[in-house]
Write a structure and sequence with these properties.
Order of helices and strands: EEHHEHEHEHEHEEEHHEHEHHHEE
Distance between the termini: 19 Å
Strand content: 15-25%
């Protein structure tokens, strides 16, 4: 069976930089409060008009394809991971195929939020191993800024997220010393509503199972997708129980990294670089300490970009590669935890 390797990596972040102080114009917050809780100093926001999840993905893809030494016409499959697609449907995969004038190839959209890129990488890895495809484009891209509540009411969520895109090209290889060694995917939907965007949706308020019906009038209970009352009550924004998410993340994050190491008979000390999903600097620091890794063994860039969910790992991986922190023969570990809950890891030899 063939192995797969990352042949090219690219990233794109919007030009618009928003510091923590910039956010004080819209909500009651401050730089110290944000940095203390998240480690974030600034983030990028896409242009409101003209830039989309797809267009950012295209820019990252162009770089990854060029670095892989191929052209867009050589790509034979697309996997696009995002939680904020351009449209409710169709997905961004076909929009990217159109924008890049690719052949009529398959396009798959992944909706695993923060774990989306590692899930997408795992799917691509299987396609390469079976010989079905030879040049797979894997994209993670997010335009969070269009759907955040920029008010004091929504600050706990809104200060965390930023926009951007990352991409890699996967190709087959016969070199077992330069390939993806293994991927590990998990989920537990028991507490899915703890980190979610309920509306618009077709749940017909099923997610209210923990609340009493007496809290809602008949009209609200009949709402199934979108209504004026949802807009008036700010129910069209993401919800997150931050403390609970943090507690689960610091358990699952290191566990899935250790799982990958054990599957390959390796110790944490063998990791050349851990590239975690940039959820929260405090989470990354906890994982680093638990695994006894040095600062040189962990890539963090949430300080500059915020949490770009599905885009965060390919952005961080690309940036690390450009900085010379990812070299041939290095053992690279990618890991993520997010909404669902889902968590995943990938171990590869560069």
């Amino acid at each position: 069976m063939k192995k797969s390797k990352i042949a090219g990596v690219g990233m794109y972040v919007p030009k618009n930089v928003f510091t923590n102080n910039d956010l004080t114009k819209y909500m009651d917050t401050n730089d110290e409060w944000i940095q203390e809780r998240t480690g974030i100093k600034e983030r990028r926001y896409a242009d409101r008009i003209g830039e989309t999840t797809t267009t950012m993905g295209v820019e990252a893809a162009k770089i990854a394809i060029e670095r892989a030494g191929i052209t867009a016409q050589d790509i034979d499959f697309i996997i696009f991971a995002t939680l904020c697609p351009d449209y409710y449907f169709p997905g961004c995969g076909v929009l990217l195929q159109r924008a890049m004038q690719m052949k009529e190839i398959g396009a798959l959209d992944i909706r695993n939020q923060c774990s989306g890129f590692v899930y997408a990488l795992s799917v691509a890895d299987q396609f390469i191993k079976t010989g079905m495809y030879k040049n797979i484009l894997v994209v993670g891209s997010e335009k969070h800024s269009f759907g955040l509540d920029f008010s004091t009411r929504g600050r706990n969520v809104s200060v965390i997220f930023g926009d951007g895109a990352g991409a890699v090209v996967l190709q087959p290889t016969e070199d077992s010393n330069r390939c993806i060694l293994s991927t590990h995917l998990h989920s537990n939907g028991t507490n899915a509503e703890i980190l979610a965007m309920y509306n618009p949706g077709t749940h017909a308020n099923h997610w209210l199972k923990e609340q009493t019906l007496a809290d809602f009038d008949e009209a609200e209970l009949g709402e199934t997708f979108m209504s004026h009352s949802m807009i008036e009550k700010a129910q069209l924004f993401p919800f997150m129980d931050g403390p609970t998410v943090f507690k689960v993340a610091i358990d699952k994050f290191p566990a899935v990294i250790i799982e990958a190491l054990e599957a390959n008979n390796l110790q944490a000390s063998a990791i050349s670089l851990l590239v975690p999903h940039q959820a929260n600097l405090r989470i990354s620091q906890f994982v680093q300490k638990k695994l006894n890794l040095t600062d040189n063994q962990v890539k963090n860039n949430i300080q500059k970009y915020g949490n770009t969910t599905a885009a965060s790992i390919p952005i961080a991986l690309c940036e690390a590669w450009e900085e010379g922190r990812v070299k041939e023969g290095d053992l690279i570990c990618l890991a993520s935890f997010g909404s669902g809950f889902t968590w995943a890891s990938a171990l590869l030899r560069w």
